[in-house]
Amino acid sequence: MAEQQPLVLLVDDEEDLCTLMQMSLSRMGIRTHIAHRLSEARQCLTEHQYDACLTDLNLPDGNGLQLLQWMNEHCPSLPVAVLTAYGNMEIAIAALKAGAFDFVSKPINPKHLEQLLQKALNKPIPSTTPQEDTLEYKMLIGQSLPIQQLRVTLKKIARSQAPVFITGESGTGKEVVANLVHRLSNRNEGPFIAINCGAIPSDLMESELFGHKKGSFTGATQDKQGLIQSAHGGSLFLDEIAELPLSMQVKLLRAVQEKRIRPVGADHEIDVDFRIISASHQDLDGLVQQGRFRQDLFFRIHVMDLELPPLRERGNDILLLAQHFIQKICSEWDIKAKALTERAQDFLLNQYYPGNVRELRNIIERAITLSDTESIDLPHLQSAPLRRSAPVLDHTDISQAITTASVTNMPLKKLPEEGLEPYLENIEKEILLNALNMTHWNRTLAAKKLGMSFRSLRYRLKKFGLDTDEE
């Protein structure tokens, strides 16, 4: 028995356009129903089971946004694409935020229409694997509320073709989340191309992104495919997009809107089909106000927003991630997995982590290196110069800080388990780290704050393994 052809609903009041789209889709083996009014579309959706829907934004008795709202209530899993007039990007973006799968600009390019419907009809197969074995649980480790909410949002975002913008502090895992958006989407069989915009020299930016033809400039000895074209059929991740020069922002905007690029030295444009995912730790809104980032590109990439939580706000996820890194690193090094002592766990839970997940991995890797036993204890973790959040201390408050630390860290009438010398050394190290953090690791200023000579400070830093140029 032959497989049944997919059925698509076309909603537009232009009869000629509907006929043209119907003919194009018929050649693709797709059956169609046509509705010219909002009321007709609702009736069709009530009476029939569709695989996708294409709707114009302007209808005689309403608009496409009203149809989207109705469909979100009655058939939320049905992919909907909107048809929009050229240049009417604000309404198209509003439709994407309202739940549209994607949009097509008029006049309709048959090739773009075909690519869009292929993506719409390529629905991900519902997973039957246990929840903990799914991609979103394997790649996003943690059980905190922010991470649980992020998983739910990611699954919704992955169903659409809308641009995604990811914000978060450095080291929170923006590329991991971008890759997860790609792998959960119906583009997962296509390439995932990740680019750090801050790592490409400005004079090579256009050639790297858009490609070039042989002889287009000195040194162009052969044709080169650009990274955007490499993402054809998949997803393009632009990390630190705020680093793009304004001249490149103009070209990127056209590539995102028109899905066409022109390599350097080429005579004609090339069609490209990609989903853009971008990220930055900078305030793009502020950069727009300063004239350093184009407002039109800002609105075009800010359709679906994801904000990643800093590690310090994820509670016990810190320990889950630490265990994950221990297992991963020990497996890579072909050594027996080590266990975190209770003191080590308490220590990790009380750090500030300005470098977030990336910093935690570095701490664990260093601790594994230093540990000669089957466990990771406090001294293995304290050897790293951790940047922690701590109250500012003046050198006149040192004696008070020691008293406070003693009361805080050791219950009354109880001697320190590690002995007096290690206990006092921990307090001294805590104060040194506090002074260094306060002065952004300017050793001269730290020595002045602590009321000691630079040589004396240097001696103490060497003593605790803190005399390093690592930042």
Automatic annotation (TrEMBL):
UniProt keyword list: ATP-binding, DNA-binding, Nucleotide-binding, Phosphoprotein, Transcription, Transcription regulation
Residue intervals passing through the bilayer: none
PROSITE patterns tied to this protein: RESPONSE_REGULATORY, SIGMA54_INTERACT_1, SIGMA54_INTERACT_2, SIGMA54_INTERACT_3, SIGMA54_INTERACT_4
Keyword Transport: no
UniProt keyword Transcription regulation present: yes
Boundaries of every Response regulatory domain copy: 7-121
Stretches assigned to the Sigma-54 factor interaction domain: 140-369
Full protein name: Response regulator
Phylogenetic placement of the source organism: Bacteria, Pseudomonadati, Pseudomonadota, Gammaproteobacteria, Moraxellales
